[in-house]
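== Folding the chain ==

***
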Amino acid sequence: MTNSDFTYKPTTALYKIKNLLKNKEKTFVIQGGQGAGKTISILMILIDYCYRNENKEVSIISDELAKMKRTVVLDFQKIMRDWNMFNSVGNWNKSESKYYFDNGSFIEFLGLDLHDVGKGMRRDIVYTNEANKVKQESYRQVASRANLSIIDFNPDGYFWGTELINENNFIQLTFKDNEYLGQGEVDSILDYFEKGYYDDGTVKNEYWANVWRVYGLGEVGSVEGRILTHFKQNTFRDFIQLNLPE
């Protein structure tokens, strides 16, 4: 089977994240605008990681489990089915939102809206999806016991996650890093610029200019906050050599 046979294919975003994860860090911060493909890319990397490594424990967390079931969990299942890896009978535990790989590794989905989720839990990797919607203390309870923590967020405004950034653990992505984004959504994103700016680059409408900066350029909204970068570096091991299906 060739790479072209798959719906979920490696993008520029995926390879940028993969290269970032090779740095010796404990925490990684993925900032991205609309359509950047950051969540799909991270899911692909985590699936590949669990498939190729035995007895690994990975938790994917968000602020609400019900919402994650409608988004991230569905994306996970679609990728697994596309790669002919999903076994809904023997490996997928629907009640626990947990997938067991045949080699003893698993990926589970946890909502922090449930009482005491994460307390005392130790994992190889914790991925926090839309971390800007998660309370800092809830994140700390989970991430502090993980060997590796990944967070992603849409840069609507400043939040606690920007304080984790240093020069070696951060990447900013845009829709241009996702070659497979539908043209309709690309046109919608480009329309933000048309509504916000004149041809000479001066601001036409501050609201739409800010929407373009956040969702088009993947920048923290200039009205609501700005990125901080002067934080100390942690240490960790090299991550994985990604080898996606071909």
